[in-house]
Description:
It comes from Draconibacterium orientale. It is built from eight helices and four strands. By secondary structure, it is an alpha+beta fold. Helix 1 runs antiparallel to helix 3. It has a single domain (8-205), classed as 2-Layer Sandwich (Alpha-Beta Plaits). A four-stranded antiparallel β-sheet has the order 2-3-1-4.
Amino acid sequence: MHFEPDAVYHVYNRSNEQVFFSRENYLYFLKKVQLQIKPACNILSWVLMPNHFHFLIQATPNGCRTDNESHLPHIQLLSKRFGNILSSYTQAINKERNRRGKLFSHNTKAKNLNDIAFEEALNGSNRLAHRPDYTTACFLYIHQNPVIAGIANSLSDWEFSSFRDYAGSRKGKLVSKEIAKEMIELDFENFKQQSQFLIEEELLKKLF
């Protein structure tokens, strides 16, 4: 993964098997995110699912700096910390469940939403057509994940996402709400209603 300062990224990883087995597992993972990821970026939204996770983040200069103290000096701090979290979480689950091997079978991916090309160039010139709001679409998609997957009846039913923080039913400290409100094109006074907006399939594909 490579990050540019101030750019917005959809960061995700999906395993071929279950990775969160209990409420304590989710909370343990989130604690690591709070300690390692939050200081290196602005977290706009997130969701943890039984076999995968999604984060919408804005990279910061601190997170984009290379980690000169490690044996891999070309690795950015934010990238390294995501790797560290998955590694340490895997070790904890392996010990808890008496298992061995990788838990996350795929590499974590970071899609730069600012770099998605406009859909069309006008008349073959360098002028580009209007770009859909990928950041808002990703924000909505992340919160809608539990309902889409059929593990929750409503967005507020799922504890392990940032939806409740924006809905005002929880005072979580993981998301940078004020920054998100400046970037996300939603009326946050009607957040619960607007969170139900459907995302077009073609737009959704561009988030990965």
